[in-house]
Amino acid sequence: MEAGAGARDEAGAAVAIEGLSHAFGELEVVAGLDLAVPPHSVLGLVGPSGCGKSTLLEILCGLREPSAGSVAVGGERAAAARLARCAFMPQRDLLLPWYSALDNAALALRNRGLGRAEARRRAGELFGRFGIAGFEGARPDRLSGGMRQRVAFLRTLVAGKPVLALDEPFAALDAITRAEMQEWLAGALREDPRTAVLVSHDVEEALYLCDRVAVLSARPGRVVAELQAPAPRAADRLAAITDPAFVAAREAALRALREGSR
C-alpha cells in the first residue's frame, strides 16, 4: 500500500484548512474554520449534530467546494486533485451484497484499473492482518457488523490514497463491538500510520484514536477547542481511557461541547 509521506503542503501539513465556510442557500453550516493535519497524524472532529462535520469531510475529499476559504490536500486545492488524494469511508459500510468480502475489498483496486485477479491477490494478502482470514468468500450478509467494517476499512486503505476521511465508521455498531473495533483500528494505524480526519459523536473514541481533537460548536460549526490526546492509539484501550490524563481531557472536551452548544 502506498504511504502518505509525500502528502503535505508548503507549511508541512498534509491537510490545510483556512478560513473555510460553507452554506446551503441561507443555511450556514460551518464558519471560519482553520485546521491543519500534519503527515501521518489523525485529527478528530466532534460536535453537535448538524454542525457541519460530514460536510467538512465532503469538502476535504473534493465532493463539494466551500462557499469561502480554502482547503488543500498535499498542497493541492482543486477539487479533482483533493479527490485523487483522499479515501472516504462513510458511516455505512456500503458493501455490495452480491460481491464476496474479497471482491468488495478489492473494489478500490479494480477502480484504479487493476485486473480482477491482481486486485483480489493484493486485497487477499491483507485479510489475515485485518483479522478476517477465512471469510474471503463470504457475502456481506454472512459477516458480523465488526467484520463488515473491517472489510470496508481494508477497501479504504488499499485505495492507496494518502489521506483517509472517516465519517463515524463505527456508529452503527453495538457498544461492545464498537470498543473492540476502536482497539483494532488503533492497532492498524500504529502498524501503518496514515494521515486521517475522523468524525465522531463519541468524545472518548476521538481522544483514543486521534492525536488531536477539534471540538466544534453548534451550527454554524466553529472550532471552540483543540485538545491533544493524552495517549493516542494506545495498545491497551481500557488502560488508556481510565488514565487520569485521559479522563481530564475527556471532561475538557465535554465542557467545550456544552459551551459550544449554547
Summarize this entry quickly.
The chain is an alpha/beta fold and 262 residues long. It is 37% helix and 22% strand.
How would you explain this protein's 3D organization?
The protein is α/β, with parallel strands linked by helices. The protein has a domain at 15-95 and 163-260: 3-Layer(aba) Sandwich (Rossmann fold), CATH 3.40.50.300. 37% of the residues lie in helices and 22% in strands. It has 9 helices and 9 strands. It has helices at residues 53-60, 79-85, 101-111, 116-124, 145-158, 175-191, 203-209, 237-242, 244-260; strands at residues 15-24, 27-37, 42-46, 68-73, 86-89, 163-167, 195-199, 212-216, 223-228. Strand 8 (212-216) and strand 9 (223-228) form a beta hairpin. The model is unreliable at 1-11 (pLDDT under 50).
Features:
262 residues, alpha/beta, Rossmann fold, six-stranded mixed beta sheet, three-stranded antiparallel beta sheet, disordered N terminus
CATH architecture of the domain at 15-95 and 163-260: 3-Layer(aba) Sandwich
**Could you say which structural class the secondary elements and strand pairing correspond to?**
alpha/beta
The CATH class of the domain at 15-95 and 163-260: Alpha Beta
Which oligomeric state applies? single chain
**Number of DSSP helical runs:** 9
Count the E strands. Answer: 9
β content, as a range? Answer: 15-25%
What name does the CATH topology of the domain at 15-95 and 163-260 carry?
Rossmann fold
- Considering the protein shown, what is the CATH homologous superfamily of the domain at 15-95 and 163-260? P-loop containing nucleotide triphosphate hydrolases
Mean pLDDT: 90
Q: Can you give the helix content as a percent range?
A: 25-40%
